[in-house]
């Protein structure tokens, strides 16, 4: 707009100076304006082409940089089967659960899909203390990402109360609010967990059949996995801790687990310390148009259900720093 408005005037001014020093014979004013307009339009088109080229080339070069310099050894589909512990798996398409009737007034997030987030924030904070007689799970943020608990027990937790899961397909917490679709880039999820079952199990899960998402998985040796799904290729990608730490074994007490995804890299913090051993390339997170957020397992009809207790779950739409993770633990 600036070039269109001021370009002809500026070009005409230069031309008048050029003519005034007798370097060229007199030309009619109309010709001045035509020449000025043509030059301005050409200059404007050049600027637009430069902007378009920079926009088109930025993303591919950024991905190439990530693959060559950030994670040069992990540019492949990395599934839990690489560890020899847990084979890759796929759940059936998500089923819509029957939500218990409630006399609560519908929240704004239940009526309208919120506008996209344009600033970092805590989009989900489930203390798991506020559960009513209808098994309604309340979110402590202003977004009202409430959920529903099925076949759970309230027990003393790490901080006040906690939810105890039975390890069956019908024991889970489901947060079904659409505003959770805002997690489509960097994110942080943290929670306290006290595991009681052995084998492989899922603590939290937001993945569906076609779109990218994420999950927290504990392995048979107590190792932790950050699993995401590439929304472009449909492949699972994992980052995970070592197998010797025994970080989340059955009967090993409460531990704080935080997953931080930043710049296509996932880091796993156990009790405030980064224990990541292997990094995958976590790209193309989707917006989960049909996906709920589950605690205590993959989904109501899925496997690898969690038996134990979970407390104080936080979900951010940005990457928290190590200092902030420790602060959340307190």
UniProtKB/TrEMBL annotation:
InterPro entries: ConA-like_dom_sf. The keyword Secreted does not apply. Gene3D superfamilies: 2.60.120.200. Keywords: Membrane, Transmembrane, Transmembrane helix. The keyword Transmembrane helix applies. The chain crosses the membrane at residues 33-53. This is LamG-like jellyroll fold domain-containing protein.
């Amino acid at each position: 707009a600036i070039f269109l408005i001021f370009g002809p005037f500026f070009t005409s001014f230069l031309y008048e100076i050029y003519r005034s020093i007798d370097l060229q014979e007199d030309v009619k004013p109309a010709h001045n304006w035509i020449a000025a307009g043509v030059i301005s339009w050409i200059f404007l088109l050049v600027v637009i082409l430069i902007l378009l080229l920079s926009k088109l080339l930025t993303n591919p070069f950024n991905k190439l940089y990530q693959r060559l310099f950030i994670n040069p050894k992990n540019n492949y589909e990395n599934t839990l089967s690489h560890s020899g512990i847990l084979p890759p798996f796929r759940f059936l398409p998500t089923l819509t659960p029957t939500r218990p009737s409630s006399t609560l007034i519908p929240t704004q997030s239940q009526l309208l899909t919120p506008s996209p987030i344009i600033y970092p924030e805590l989009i989900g904070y489930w203390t798991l203390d506020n559960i009513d007689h209808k098994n309604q799970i309340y979110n402590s943020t202003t977004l009202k990402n409430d959920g529903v608990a099925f076949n759970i027990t309230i027990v003393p937790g790490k901080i006040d109360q906690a939810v105890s899961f039975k390890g069956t397909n019908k024991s889970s917490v489901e947060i079904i609010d659409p505003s959770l679709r805002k997690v489509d880039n960097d994110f942080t999820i943290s929670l306290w967990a006290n595991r009681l079952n052995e084998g492989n199990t899922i603590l939290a899960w937001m993945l569906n059949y076609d779109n990218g998402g994420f999950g927290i998985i504990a392995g048979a040796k107590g190792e932790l996995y950050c699993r995401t799904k590439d929304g472009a290729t449909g492949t699972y990608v994992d980052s995970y801790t070592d197998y010797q730490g025994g970080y989340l074994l059955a009967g090993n007490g409460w531990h704080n687990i935080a997953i931080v995804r930043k710049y296509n890299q996932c880091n796993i913090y156990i009790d405030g310390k980064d224990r990541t051993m292997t990094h995958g390339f976590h790209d193309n997170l989707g917006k989960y148009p049909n996906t709920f957020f589950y605690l205590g397992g993959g989904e109501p009809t899925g496997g690898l259900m969690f038996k134990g207790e979970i407390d104080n779950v936080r979900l951010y739409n940005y990457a928290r720093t190590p200092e902030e993770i420790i602060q959340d633990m307190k």
